[in-house]
Write a structure and sequence with these properties.
This protein is of the alpha+beta class. The protein is built from seven helices and eleven strands. The chain folds into two domains: about 140 residues, no CATH class; about 100 residues, no CATH class.
Amino acid sequence: MLFPDSPRVLYGKNPLVQVIMQIRFPQILRIASDLPADFQDRIRDDYPLYREKREASIGLPAGLEKLLPSEALPKSDVAYEFSSDDGNWTLSLTSGFLALSCRCYERWEGFSERLEPGMTALRDIYKPQFFTRLGLRYQNLITRSALEIDGTDWKELLEPHISGEMATEIAPQIAHIAREMRVESDDGTKVQVRHGFVPRTDGDEICYSIDADFFTDSRLTNDQISPTLDNYHIEAGRLFRWCISERLHTAMDPQAI
């Protein structure tokens, strides 16, 4: 356990913006060289939309690309993206990883259900022998106007170990703040936490972001994936509750689960 235990809740006013899972495996060249038609057939009911992205795997200094012959340029890494018809879910496959992202997260059970077809297809078709990295990232955005607490100071909404300078006399003059920490457990679980002010994308309101990336670089087998992700999900809830005050917790309409 990385963070203090707390009751599991589902927030009626969910602050989550995005959840991303990524699992890495030793490179499988067949994914890069052949279109994943069989993979698409297995997941198409849930992810009917398709697009292909290519990005250079090795960056070149500005101008150098034009001086080199095409055969000397680094090969592009292809990413196959399969999306739900509403665009909320995107499953990405490359020669080295599988990722699932959700823009409007509601419950962990729904996320796990959406992940299963992709993981099953990956195992059945490409048969990775083991996995080299597993990560689960939660991006929370606390917007005071959406919670009807516009005039409340951040020091009243965040725990003292998070609010820091915002609990001092210079708080009204703080225009930007950003912090980062990394926490590691004895079992190999790590979490990179970034938190601070961010502007709301559709206006001038300043919001508070809590971005937590749980991961392990230890080798994992197929049987370890599901319980590891379940544990990251529980730890993410504990981390978020550790960051926020009782007042903010109540404002988000917590419901026991």
